[in-house]
Design a protein that fits this description.
Largest sheet: 7 strands, antiparallel
Number of strands: 13
Structural class: alpha+beta
CATH architecture of the largest domain: 2-Layer Sandwich
CATH topology of the largest domain: D-amino Acid Aminotransferase, Chain A, domain 1
CATH superfamily of the largest domain: ATP-grasp fold, B domain
Distance between the termini: 32 Å
Radius of gyration: 20 Å
Strand order of the largest sheet: 11-10-9-8-7-12-13
CATH class of the largest domain: Alpha Beta
Number of domains: 2
Length: 315
C-alpha cells in the first residue's frame, strides 16, 4: 500500500494525521505569540488564577541554581508535593512525593529518595534537560493532587487526568488517562497508561486502549473501565471551553484532574495536543473539527459552545 493511498483511507475514516494537525490546526488556528502562555506552566497558572480557574496550589519556584538549597524550606509544611519543569512536556521530569521518613522522601511508586537526589533532579530541570527545545528552565513545587474516589478502582498509584480537545472554544473529543504499573504510575499513554474514550455529551467512559490493544479492564486492578460516569461533566466542558478565551488558542488540549477535596483543577494546556485520543475513542477527529469550523466558530459564549458540543458529539 502506498503512503498516499494509506493517507487517503485514513482521511476517509475521519482520522486526523500529524501533518494535517500541524499544518491546518496547530499552525492555522494558533498564533505563535500565544504559545508562551501555555508552554510556560508558571504563566499558565497565573492566567488561570486571574480568570478564576482553579489550579493546583503553587508552593514555590526555583529559578537559579543557588535556590536549589531552599527546597526543604519550600516544602517544610508539606507532606506531599510535586516537582515539575515549567516548560516540560509529556510528563517528563515530574516527580511526585507522597511522604517523608526522616531524611528520605517517598515517591508515588514507593521508592525512597534522598534530599540530595531531589536537589540533583531540580538542577537537571534548571539545566533544561526536560524542557521544550532544551532551554534553561524553572522548577515548580506544587500541590499533590489526591484524585477523586471514582477512579480508585481503575488506577494504579498515580493521578488520572482528563484530556479535552477544544476547537474554536467548542469541546470536540475527550478521554481519561489512567496510570498503570507499566507507566510507573504516570498518566502517559506512550509509557503504558490506559486511554479511555469518553462520551462527550455525558462524560461516560467508552472503549479503552492499552498501547495498541483494545481492553475492557484495567491491567493492574482487573476492574472494568467502561460505563463509568465522570461527575459534574458539564462543569469540566465549561472549564475547557473557557481556556479558548483565556489563552486565545483556536486548537488546544486541556488537561484536568479531579481532586477529592477541591474538585476539578486545570493541570495544563497544550497547544499541540497528541492524536492518540482518536484511538481511545475509536473515532476520528476530522468530522467533528469540520462541523465546528463550518458551523460553530461564531458561537456567542461558553454556554453556547458547550451546548453545541453536547448536542452534536453524543456517542
Amino acid at each position: 500500500m502506498t503512503i498516499l493511498k494509506a493517507y487517503s483511507q485514513l482521511s476517509e475514516l475521519g482520522i486526523l494525521g500529524l501533518n494535517h494537525r500541524n499544518a491546518v490546526y496547530t499552525l492555522g488556528f494558533n498564533e505563535r505569540r500565544f504559545y508562551p502562555l501555555v508552554d510556560d506552566k508558571v504563566r499558565t497558572k497565573s492566567l488561570c488564577s486571574e480568570a478564576g480557574v482553579a489550579v493546583p496550589a503553587l508552593y514555590g519556584t526555583i529559578e537559579i541554581e543557588r535556590q536549589v538549597r531552599d527546597l526543604p524550606h519550600i516544602v517544610a509544611e508539606q507532606t506531599e508535593f510535586v516537582i515539575k519543569p515549567a516548560h516540560g512536556s509529556g510528563g517528563d521530569g515530574i516527580i511526585v512525593i507522597k511522604g517523608q521518613v526522616k531524611d528520605k522522601y517517598r515517591k508515588a511508586n514507593g521508592v525512597m529518595i534522598s534530599l540530595e537526589d531531589l536537589q540533583h533532579h531540580i538542577s537537571n530541570v534548571l539545566s533544561g534537560m526536560y524542557s521544550l527545545g532544551g532551554a534553561t528552565d524553572t522548577a515548580l513545587i506544587e500541590y499533590c493532587v489526591n484524585f477523586d474516589p471514582i477512579f480508585e478502582s481503575i488506577s494504579y498509584q498515580g493521578v488520572p487526568d482528563i484530556r479535552i480537545i477544544v476547537c474554536c472554544g467548542v469541546p470536540v473529543m475527550s478521554m481519561v488517562r489512567l496510570p498503570t504499573r507499566m507507566s510507573d504510575g504516570k498518566a502517559n499513554l506512550h509509557q503504558g497508561a490506559l486511554g479511555v474514550g469518553l462520551d462527550l455529551a455525558t462524560g461516560t467512559t467508552l472503549t479503552a486502549v492499552l498501547l495498541n490493544d483494545v481492553v475492557t479492564e484495567h491491567p493492574d486492578t482487573a476492574n472494568p473501565v467502561t460505563g463509568i460516569k465522570i461527575p459534574n461533566w458539564t462543569d469540566l466542558l465549561t472549564l475547557a471551553s473557557r481556556c479558548y478565551d483565556i489563552f486565545h488558542l483556536g486548537y488546544l488540549g486541556v488537561d484536568i484532574v479531579l481532586d477529592k477535596e477541591y474538585g476539578p483543577l486545570l493541570l495544563e494546556v497544550n497547544a499541540r495536543p497528541g492524536l492518540n485520543i482518536q484511538i481511545a475513542n475509536q473515532a476520528g477527529l476530522l468530522p467533528r473539527l469540520n462541523l465546528v469550523t463550518n458551523r460553530a466558530c461564531d458561537l456567542p459564549d461558553v454556554h453556547a459552545r458547550v451546548a453545541f458540543a453536547i448536542e452534536h458529539f453524543h456517542t
